[in-house]
Design a protein that fits this description.
- The chain is of the alpha/beta class.
- α6 crosses α8.
- Helices cover 61% and strands 9% of the residues.
- It has a four-stranded mixed beta sheet. It has a two-stranded antiparallel ribbon with strand order 3-4.
- The structure holds zinc ion.
- Zinc ion binds next to α8 and α10.
- Zinc ion (ZN) binds next to α8 and α10.
Length: 282
């Protein structure tokens, strides 16, 4: 590596010298001027290379943009937010590995809608790339798990994989206000894990927000465990992780009803994930 770099510098210097000589010979300008002109060109190239990645922010294709118009959350964003959302969706479509199982062919629509769900949950934060989840496995429908001996609609595991049944993902996404959304549910699990796994994206949920959330959630969690009626559906009583994931589904899909039934819990969620769907509702 070291030698290569030294070689490169050597070639650049030789090239620079030759260019100065060529300029002085061909255009009959003094070498000082040739030196200055080439120096400026070199500097411009260096600046260009430095800011180039900014210009090359990932962009959605026209087809992907059309698909995104199916996405309810996106439709409610203003034009500035839409640009940012598109950038994030594009980042996920390009940087995550999407794998189809059971002969499922992964389409652009699958990539865009799943990527949009990742972007939706993290949209209140500066940018969460879900760095610890680089693989998204898609089954055509609910799949049999050898570990549990049951059929699963989705799961998230710490080896960096988000698994989804496409049939159930679509079902959750098709009815936008029933409080069921598999994509949001699984990615909500991924969000909590991402926050818990040490790395670049570690501990982005604020301690103070978490403390408020835990305190408010505990009451409702106990209610559900005690089989008392609750706005939050009963599956949330499985454990605290499921409680959070179910709350995320209902938070995005039924914000007004959620707020009316459990205002403190709603506000705690809005603070925790730094966004409030009610403020966006049109
Ligand atoms: Zn779950």
């Amino acid at each position: 590596m070291g030698l290569e770099t030294t070689d490169k510098i050597k070639y650049y210097l030789i090239g620079f010298g030759l260019a100065v000589m060529a300029l002085t010979a061909v255009f009959k300008i003094e070498w000082q001027w040739a030196f200055l002109i080439l120096g400026c060109i070199g500097l411009a190239v260096m600046i260009y290379l430095a800011i180039d990645p900014v210009w090359k922010k990932p962009k959605l294709t026209l087809q992907q943009q059309t698909i995104l118009l199916e996405f309810d959350f996106y439709k409610k964003l203003n034009s500035v937010e839409r640009k940012e959302f598109e950038y994030r969706v594009s980042y996920f479509t390009q940087n995550k590995e999407f794998m189809g199982k059971k002969d499922l062919v992964v389409t652009d629509r699958m990539k865009v809608l799943i990527a949009a769900t990742l972007a939706q949950i993290g949209f209140g934060f500066e940018f969460i790339s879900f760095e610890d989840f680089d693989k998204i496995i898609i089954f055509p429908k609910a799949y049999y798990s050898k570990q549990t001996g049951r059929y699963h609609k989705g799961e998230v595991n710490t080896s960096g994989v988000i698994v989804l049944s496409w049939e159930d993902f679509l079902e959750g996404f098709r009815i936008a206000d029933d409080g069921y959304n598999l994509g949001l549910h699984e990615i909500a699990h991924a969000l909590r894990l991402e926050d818990a796994i040490p790395g670049d994206e570690y501990h982005f949920l604020k301690d103070t927000d978490l403390a408020v959330w835990n305190a408010v959630a505990e009451t409702e969690y106990d209610n559900i465990r005690a089989k008392k009626p609750s706005f939050i559906r009963s599956y949330a009583g499985t454990n605290r992780q499921e409680f959070f994931a179910v709350c995320v589904e209902q938070f995005f899909e039924q914000p007004q009803e959620f707020y009316n039934a459990l205002p403190q819990l709603y506000k705690a969620m809005a603070s925790l994930i730094k966004q409030d769907p009610l403020k966006r509702k049109r």
